[in-house]
Recover the amino acids of this structure.
C-alpha cells in the first residue's frame, strides 16, 4: 500500500477510537478527519488524497445529506434524554 492509503487508514482508526471513547462530539470527529485529509492533500500535493472539491462533492448527494442530518438529530435526541424515554417505553426497564 502507498503512504496515502496508510494515512487514510490511520485517520479512519483515529476517528473510530475517538468515537468509541467519546473524546469529542460525535458530529465533530468525522469532520476533523476529513479536514485533516484535505489539508494533507493540499500541503503534500498528492492526487490520491481527497481534495476540497471531493469533500464538497459529497454534499451533492441528497442521500448522504439525509444520513448526516439524521446522525445529528440522533445525537441531539441522545443528549436530551429523549432516546431513553422512547427506548424505555418500547423495550421496558431492565430488572
Amino acid at each position: 500500500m502507498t503512504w496515502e492509503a496508510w494515512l487514510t487508514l490511520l485517520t479512519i482508526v483515529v476517528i473510530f477510537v475517538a468515537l468509541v471513547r467519546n473524546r469529542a462530539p460525535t458530529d465533530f470527529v468525522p469532520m476533523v478527519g476529513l479536514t485533516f485529509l484535505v489539508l494533507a492533500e493540499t500541503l503534500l500535493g498528492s492526487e490520491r488524497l481527497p481534495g476540497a472539491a471531493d469533500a464538497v462533492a459529497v454534499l451533492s448527494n441528497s442521500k448522504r445529506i439525509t444520513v448526516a442530518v439524521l446522525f445529528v438529530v440522533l445525537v441531539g435526541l441522545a443528549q436530551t434524554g429523549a432516546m431513553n424515554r422512547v427506548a424505555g417505553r418500547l423495550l421496558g426497564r431492565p430488572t
About this structure: The first helix runs from residue 3 to 20.
